[in-house]
Write a structure and sequence with these properties.
362 residues; alpha/beta; Rossmann fold; OB fold (Dihydrolipoamide Acetyltransferase, E2P); 8-stranded mixed sheet; 10 helices; 31% helix
Length: 362
């Protein structure tokens, strides 16, 4: 990846530009100066996906420029990916080159790793997977000391586990996370740890309850649950819900109730628009919500959900799109002020940025 300028001066300049952009977007709301949390310059990305490109009977890892499916960029190593991914790339390639069972109609490889050293490889095929493939894949998984998943139309064969395990420390406590294949996880583990610590500090020690929307696998839920009386958390993805429930149990956190609802559906439930069977047995009236935590997709919160958050004294908001964050703050600015803000450089060497704000009722 020689096209990526992995030098500190170029990175510092880019981070300065991102900070200026966030400052500009939040200026209409009299936001304080953002705290800036930088990223390692390389080996920060814990997951990677490659297409395979065939030349002269050899398959190469390949990526493509946006909009161009026919001009591959052939890759031997990938400096922005974790050291574990880079260590696996060459022996995996050698294995498929030496085995027809592994290479035949293989078209995509995905890596999922953790700071704790765990690794899962997914191999995707344009053909049914047979016993010969499984025998070769089992040997490969043992040789590389990874879990491995084979995918083809109508098939998903798991060798080992279909998740990786991560460990992150927040305020002196270590939290264990299962991160399933195919489910969303924060790609930059080091910066994710900084985000968790910032959110933990921003929420503070509370004697009331927390509502969390878009909780995913419980990435923020686990540390934030230790700061409040109890938590009602929502997530719509089944795989993320199952992972979150396992993570709560693995970490012996028992003050969280998790329901599989979208943020929009929970808004309807809290507004009395319609009942949901998935809320049966949940006594919403028993909660004394003082804070709401949201980590929405790039589109931000829809207007109704944004309006729902207005009810809370404190809104802790993590965003992967500062433009939609600014739009949501504009809707809330008449009742809430920005007390804290931060930039988390999850995506160095790109224009993308993650940001966070704490909004407090005026």
């Amino acid at each position: 990846m020689s096209s990526v300028p992995l030098d500190s001066a170029a990175y510092a300049q880019q981070l300065t530009e991102k900070t200026a952009r966030l400052r500009e977007l939040l200026a209409p709301f009299d936001a304080p100066e953002p705290q800036v949390f930088d990223s390692p310059l390389q080996h920060y990305r814990l997951r990677a996906e490659f297409r395979l490109w065939r030349e002269n009977e050899e398959r190469f890892y390949a990526m493509f420029e946006k909009g161009d499916k026919y001009t591959p960029i052939l890759i031997e190593d990938f400096p922005i990916a974790s050291a574990r991914i880079n260590a696996l790339m060459a022996p995996l390639k050698a294995a498929w080159q030496a085995s027809t069972a592994l290479s035949f109609k293989l078209f995509q490889v995905e890596f999922l790793t953790t700071l704790a050293g765990d690794a899962l490889i997914t191999l995707a095929y344009h053909r049914p997977l047979d016993d010969a493939w499984q025998a070769a894949a089992e040997q490969l998984a043992a040789d590389l000391q990874v879990s491995l998943i084979g995918r083809s139309r109508g098939q998903r064969i798991v060798i080992g586990r279909d998740f990786v395990e991560e460990e992150l420390e927040v305020a002196g406590r270590r939290f264990r996370y299962r991160q399933p294949e195919g489910a969303f996880t924060q790609p930059n583990g080091t910066v994710n740890g900084k985000m968790l610590a910032w959110a933990y500090e921003a929420l503070g020690e509370r004697d009331d309850d927390l509502l969390e929307l878009y909780c995913g696998n419980g990435n923020f839920t686990l540390p934030l649950a230790t700061r409040v009386r109890k938590v009602l958390a929502t997530e719509i993805s089944k795989s993320s819900v199952y992972a979150a429930l396992a993570n709560l149990a693995d970490n012996a956190i028992d003050n969280v109730t998790l329901v599989r609802l979208s943020a929009e559906e929970l808004t309807q439930a809290l507004n009395g628009v319609r009942p949901f069977r998935r809320l049966a047995g949940v006594d919403l009236a028993s909660y004394d919500f003082g804070s709401v935590f949201v980590d929405p997709p790039r589109a931000g919160m829809d207007p109704d959900t944004c309006e729902l958050t207005r009810r809370f004294e404190r809104i802790l908001y993590i965003s992967c799109n500062p433009e939609t964050l600014a739009q949501n703050i504009a809707q809330l600015h008449d009742t809430h002020r920005v007390e804290r803000c931060a930039l988390f450089d999850q995506f160095p060497w790109t224009h993308h940025m993650e940001s966070g704000v704490l909004l407090v009722r005026r």
